[in-house]
Amino acid sequence: MKDVKISVRQFTVLVIIYTIGTTILLIPSGLAAYAKQDAWLAAILGVVLNLLVVCLYNRVSDCFPDMTLVQYNEKVFGKWLGKLLSLFFILFCFVGATTVLFDLGNFINTQVMPDTPIQAINIIYALVVVMGVRLGLETLIRAAEIFFPWIIMLFIILVLCLLPEVRIEKLQPMFTSGVKPLIKGALSVAGTASLPFIVLFMVFPAHVNQYRKAKKAFLIATLLGGVFFVIITFLCISVLGVQMTERHMYPSYALAKQISIGNFLERVEILIAGIWFLTVYYKTTIYFYGFVIGLAQFLNMANYRPLVLPLGMILVVYSLVVYPNVAYLAEFDNKIWVPYALTMGLLYPVLILGVAAIRKSLTKN
């Protein structure tokens, strides 16, 4: 595999898009269920947790500036234990890619094109994901730079059009939900937004040309991405209200349906959904990229591209069975995903830091 390098600016764009991803589509509903009208406060607390996680990841990145996570595992844990941990990481990337692909397929199938089978949606979307990964990281990032201004523009249009609909009284009474719901909500934000950043260790720091500057950019991009879903959560609560936000599976899409200016500018929600199509695409693609590159390095393959199409086929099949039904999805997201993400996104990096520190002290002695 040739040594691919991306710029700090490109890495910043990638992190912002990856942070937005499914977060603005799914998080407001869960936050409203946990913290009611204080959901936007839980979102802010979640952003703080995200920044702390990124500080941890920046510290971990100092351990292996020229390697991906899979390559570093064998160096720090030894061949067999390193391979085992790499396998768990690769599985995490695969599960992440399939769940996000299902989320997008289910969204389009239930909200946009109800008569189109979810199988057709997932196959078409996965083909674009496979194409992006096969073309390589540089191509993906350059395309992200092109799409990023459009994401910002559509988001600004959404916010400006909804400002007349904001009702501050729907946020009241404030600070009544208690500390525990806020913490639960913040953990759900971190489980969706920042803990999956572990996948970015297949890109950062090895493939960023100025990785020390990228560490600061990582924090800034996480903060900017967090601003997006804080604003969306605030708008969901202040426009739709707590009950409707909690009841809707995709409250931010229902939010876009509220746009009505002079009985002329209406039914523009599918244009606003362009934000989600683009950001979810990149979240799926980075998960899948980590899966494919990780497996290629696990198998010591010189070229990852022969794996892309067959693994893409597996991705589609598993995305159709990963959630048997919507009730299972809600149960999985609430009770399984956050502990799973905490294990891979928090305990795993802490373990790496601990073992690396022990090895370093033994080497000095």
Describe the fold and architecture.
The protein is mainly α and 365 residues long. It contains 15 helices and 2 strands. The chain has helices at 8-20, 23-35, 39-61, 69-77, 79-112, 118-135, 137-162, 179-193, 211-240, 242-247, 251-256, 269-272, 274-298, 305-321, 326-364; strands at 260-261, 265-266. A hairpin with a 3-residue loop joins strand 1 (260-261) and strand 2. Helix 3 (39-61) packs antiparallel against helix 9 and helix 7 (137-162) packs antiparallel against helix 13 (274-298).
Strands of the largest sheet, in order across it? 1-2
Q: What does the largest sheet look like?
A: 2 strands, antiparallel
Task: Report the β-strand fraction as a percent range.
Answer: under 5%
Mean pLDDT reading: 87
* Quaternary organization: single chain
Poorly predicted tracts of residues: none
Q: Please state the overall shape, judged from the principal axes of the Cα atoms.
A: globular
Q: From the alpha-carbon coordinates, what is the Rg to the nearest angstrom?
A: 20 Å
Order of helices and strands: HHHHHHHHHHHEEHHHH
**SS-derived structural category:** mainly alpha
Tally of contiguous helical segments: 15
Give the N-terminus to C-terminus distance in angstroms: 36 Å
Helix content: over 70%
Quantity of strands, as a count: 2
Outline of the structure:
The protein has 365 residues and is an all-alpha fold.
